[in-house]
Amino acid sequence: MQQSTGETRKQNEKRRQYQQMAMKMRPKPPVLINSFKAFVVGGLISVLGQAIQNIYIRFFDFSKEHAGNPTVATLIFISVLLTGLGVYDKIGQFAGAGSAVPVTGFANSIASAAIEHRSEGLVLGVGGNMFKLAGSVIVFGVVAAFIIALIKTLIKMV
Amino acid sequence: MKTQLGRSTWEFSKVRILSSAVAVGPLEGQGPLANDFDIIHEDLYIGQDTWEKAERKLFEEALDLSIKKAGLTKDQINLMIAGDLLNQIISASFTATYSQIPYLGVYGACSTSMEALALSAALIEGDFADYIVSGCSSHNSTAEKQYRYPTEYGGQKPPYAQWTVTGSGVAIVGKGLVGPRVKYATIGKIVDMGLKDPFDMGSAMAPAAVDTIVQHFKDTGRNPEDYDLIVTGDLASVGYPIAKKLLLEQGYDMSTVYNDCGLMIYSPNQEVFAGGSGCASSAVVTYGHIMKKLNQKEFNKVLVVATGALLSPISYQQGESIPCIAHAVAIENEED
C-alpha cells in the first residue's frame, strides 16, 4: 500500500511536469490581437445595428422605443443568412467574441445547429437540436434576470 | 517460428500489402500530396445529401478501388477489418453492408488505421484468411458535428486545434508475391498524462506515440536509423516537436527520419490550424503517399505510428483527461 501511494505520487509528478512542458511548447492564442479584432468587429456590428435603427426611425416612422424590435429582427435575419451561406463561421474564427456576443452570434448558434441536424428530421433533428448551444444562454439569461429583478425588488422595499 | 517479440511486438514473415487505395475531399486534394491520392472530390458532400453518407461514399470508393487494384473480387476477400470516428462506427459498418464481406469493426480513434492493419496482418500470418481488406475513414464535418460544434457555428478555435482529414484509406492485406511486406506491429498501451483540453490532441497524444516507438525499438532491437521514414499519425505542429524532444530525452535521435502525417497532408498556407487529424490522416498518407514511395523503392523501410485520442464528448465534459494510444506497423520492401 505504502509503495503504491509512492508510485502514484511519482506518476502524478511526472504528469505535472509533462503538462507544464506541453503548455510551454504549444502556441498561445494571440490574446491582444484577438481582443482588438473582437472589439472592432463587435463595434462594427453595433454600428450596423444603429444604422438600421436610424433607418427604421427615419424612413418607416418608428418611434425610438419601438425601432428596437425590427432592428434586432433585421440583424438576426442577416446573421442567419450569413450562417446559411457558410460565411458566419469564418467571421467567427476571425472575430471571436466580437461576433459571438451580439444578437447575431446568438442567432448563428441557433441557425447553425438547425442546419446541422436537418438530416435527422424536422422534429427530432431541427426541433430537438436547435437550442443545443443557445439553450444555456437562455437558461442562465433567465436565471440572471430573475436574480437581478429580485435584488431590485428587495432594494425598493427597504 | 515465434511471432512475438519482446513485450508487445508481433513479427510477420508472409504478410504483404497487395494494394491500397485512397479517396479524399477537396482540401486534401489541394494539399502537397494530391498526386498520391487516387480519388479527389471537389465537393465535401461527395454528391450525397448528408455528411455521414459522404464519408461512407469515400470509404466505398477506396474499398472498391483497392480490391480492383489487387486484381481480386469482393467474394475472394475473407474479411474486412475497419473502423472510423463516428458513434457505433457507422461509416465502417455501413460500408460493410455495401461490401458484403465478413466484417469485424474496430475502434481506436485516430489509431484505427494501424490497429486494423496490425490485426489483419496477424490473421493472415495465422492462416485464418487469405485476403483481408483493412481500412478506415473520417470526414471533417461528421467529426465536427459529433465531437465539437455544428459546422457553421462561429466559435473561435485556438491555434493548437487540428483539422479532421476528409478521406478514406484502404489496403488489401494478404499472402502474395508482390507488394511491400508488413514486418512488425507494435501494439501500444494507453498513456494518459492528464491533459484535458479536447482541442489540444497533439500534446495529449505525443507521450503515447513516444511510448510505442520506444517499445518498438526495444522489442525489435532496431534504431531510428534503420528506417527511411518514421511517421506519427496526427500529432501536428504541437505534438510533433514534443514527441521529438521526448524521444531525444530517451536517447533516440529522430531528427533525420521523423515526420508526421498531419503535417504532411496540408501545406502551411492552408488554414488548418496546427495540422491534420482524424483516422484518415494516417490512412491516406500511408496508403496513398507512403505506399507509392515504397513501390517506387524510394523508401524501403517505413514505420507508421498511428496515434489515437480515446476521448468522447461525454468524457471530457465530465472533466476526465484524455486517454491516448498509438500502434506502430513497420512496412518494408524485401531486401534484394
UniProtKB/TrEMBL annotation, chain A:
Protein name per its UniProtKB record: Stage V sporulation protein AC
InterPro entries: Spore_V_AC, SpoVA
Species name: Vulcanibacillus modesticaldus
Signal peptide: none
Highest taxon in the source lineage: Bacteria
Keywords: Membrane, Transmembrane, Transmembrane helix
Transmembrane segments: 31-52, 72-88, 95-115, 135-155
